[in-house]
Amino acid sequence: MQVSVFTAASIGNALALVVAATASGGIVGSYAVGSGTQVSTVQFDFVTLGTNETNTYIYEVAHGEGLFGDDLFAIIAEAQPSFFSHEVITFSFGDALFSVGIGSDFASGFGTAPDYLDYWHYWTRESAGEAWSESWVGFSDRAVTNGSWDGWVFNLWGAPAAVPAPGALGLFALSALGRSRRRAMVCSSAS
Fold first, then answer.
1. 172 and 153 in one domain?
2. Better-scored residue on pLDDT, 58 or 51
3. Is the same domain home to 172 and 154?
4. Cβ atoms 34, 75 nearer than 8 A
5. Which domain holds residue 93?
6. Listed residue (147, 150, 115, 117) closest to 133, CA to CA
7. Do 121 and 55 belong to one domain?
8. How large is the C-alpha radius of gyration of the chain?
9. N or C: which end of the chain has fewer CB within 10 A?
């Protein structure tokens, strides 16, 4: 009789494989929040000036119809009240994202001299397969749809970092976990 051994160590090894595989992409965390029949993705890139090293956070946000980009922030903040924070400042021309804090990463600003990069640049795309475009509307005016992506980049003029789709990360984690489990089964049956 073969016994499946599924230990904390095998889970830890599988998670270490996922982290090692995504470290070059700069993904610090990937989260699924909210509820509803539609899913939009929000990506946050915290870029370190001078090195262009990026800490990326990906949120798959489940929601209903008729929402806007700023509504996704409310869903994330409600799901992670002690982990995710943001500040929006309202002007006569509309709302502007001033700061975002996720875990130990925090960035705020509206663009100061000499490089004017220290603000949250807003990018959008309608699906993971499309190229990013700079948004010409504010996030309180951007209607999100099923499969749409909103990207936020701090300290860089360029588009959000290229990352695997959040579902691909989950599949990789499951396959790595399966390999650890098979190795554990082989070891236990040889005993």
1. no
2. 58
3. no
4. yes
5. 27-162
6. 150
7. yes
8. 19
9. N
Q: What average pLDDT does range 34-56 have in this prediction?
A: 93
How many Cβ atoms from other residues are within 10 Å of residue 129's Cβ?
8
More confident site: 49 or 165: 49
Q: What's the token pair of residue 159?
A: 């588009």
Q: For residue 93, what are the CA distances in angstroms to 77, 103, 120, 128?
A: 24, 31, 17, 30
Tokens coding 161: 């970092």
CB 120 within 8 A of CB 153: yes
According to DSSP, the residues that pair with 32 across neighbouring strands are 60
171 in the same domain as 111: no
With 90 as the cut, is the pLDDT of residue 84 above it?
Answer: yes
pLDDT band at 164 (very low <50, low <70, confident <90, very high): confident
Q: Are residues 97 and 13 in the same domain?
A: no
d(CA 106, CA 108): 7
Q: What is the torsion angle, in degrees rounded to the nearest 10, for the CA atoms of residue 108, residue 111, residue 117 and residue 118?
A: -10
Note whether 21 and 31 are same-domain residues. Answer: no
